[in-house]
TrEMBL record:
It comes from the Bacteria. GO terms for cellular component: plasma membrane. Belongs to the binding-protein-dependent transport system permease family. PANTHER family: ABC TRANSPORTER PERMEASE PROTEIN MG189-RELATED (PTHR43744:SF12), ABC TRANSPORTER PERMEASE PROTEIN MG189-RELATED-RELATED (PTHR43744). Signal peptide: none annotated. It is found in: Cell membrane. It comes from Kribbella sp. HUAS MG21. InterPro entries: MetI-like, MetI-like_sf. Residues 92-284 form the ABC transmembrane type-1 domain. Gene3D superfamilies: MetI-like (1.10.3720.10). This is Carbohydrate ABC transporter permease. The keyword tRNA processing does not apply. The chain crosses the membrane at residues 28-49, 91-115, 127-148, 160-180, 216-238, 263-284.
Length: 298
């Protein structure tokens, strides 16, 4: 037998071994897991695809087409109607202002709180930790009434400033704990070297510790962005008497009438609202995974 025949025979043997019963049985659990994950992924993404498809259908087709994703004829006018007639251009500006400002305030506040709790020792530290963790079990709806009362007393009820302070003034315990866990695993020699060089507390925090926590900052930014962008009750209360202050999530009420609902227009508005969230997630997904993995590891 020549060398070429031996190589060909070995390849045939490897090919047969690849589809052997024992090998198939060993890989069966992985294939089942992959099939379950694939089906779960399709079930998870289907409502999003259906919403995008519904945004291109006419109102009657939304109900008559059933579970079909593709429209018979794309109605791009739904998007122009959502943008101009329903005033989503103004709502988008309000949402960007509120969301960006809230994210900046939450990141700075939670990063500083996590840094102090992780690196400083002071009287009452454990009490603060217990109170913070206890707030995880308080439903968000219970805080709306006192927040509205305080905002009204301060004259901030019908304003974007009041809306930002209300959205950023929550405990955000999960974000604080993420920073706490990340700062706790950093070596103390970094701070000691900075102190020898004459750096103070804020310089150490702003120039050394916060830049090192970029993965956590990306995670907190994304989580806060999602929560603020999709917030409904607080923006509704703060814009109840001022429709011009509505955000995108509240602005969808424009498609709900007394006797009917414009479902295709609402689907187009929801698609417009979700687009920035999807783009931000794609840009920050690597840092988001690193931040979550680092927090879990710590």
């Amino acid at each position: 037998m020549s060398v070429a025949d031996e190589v060909l025979s070995a390849r045939r043997g490897a090919g047969n071994n690849r589809w052997s019963t024992a090998r198939l049985l060993r890989r069966l659990p992985w294939w089942i897991a992959a099939a379950v994950i694939g089906i779960g992924g399709l079930l998870w993404i289907y409502p999003f695809l259906w919403m995008v498809g519904a945004s291109l259908k006419n109102p009657l087709e939304v109900f008559t087409a059933g579970l079909s994703l593709l429209p018979e004829k794309a109605e791009w006018s739904n998007y122009s109607r959502a943008w101009s007639d329903a005033g989503f251009g103004k709502y988008l500006i309000n949402t960007v202002i509120v969301t960006v400002t809230t994210v900046i305030l939450v990141v700075l506040r939670c990063a500083m709180a996590g840094y102090v709790l992780a690196r400083q020792t002071f009287f009452g530290r454990k009490v603060v930790m217990v109170v913070l963790i206890a707030t995880l079990f308080v439903p968000t709806g219970y805080t709306i009434i006192p927040v509205v009362e305080i905002s009204e007393q301060l004259g901030l009820l019908n304003s974007l400033t009041g809306m930002v302070l209300a959205l950023s003034g929550g405990a955000h315990v999960a974000s604080i704990l993420l920073y706490l866990g990340y700062f706790r695993q950093l070596p103390r020699e970094l701070e000691e070297s900075a102190v020898i060089d004459g750096a103070g507390f804020f310089n150490i925090f702003a120039r050394i510790m916060l830049p090192l926590a970029n993965p956590v900052t990306a995670t907190v930014t994304l989580l806060t962005f999602l929560g603020t962008w999709n917030a409904f009750f607080l923006p509704l209360v703060f814009s109840f008497s001022r429709p011009d202050l509505r955000t995108l999530s509240v602005g969808m009420l424009a498609f709900v009438g007394e006797n009917s609902t414009d479902w295709s227009g609402m689907a187009a508005a929801a698609s417009i609202s979700l687009l920035p969230v999807v783009v931000l997630f794609i840009l920050l997904q690597r840092y988001f995974v690193e931040g979550i993995a680092g927090a879990v590891k710590s």
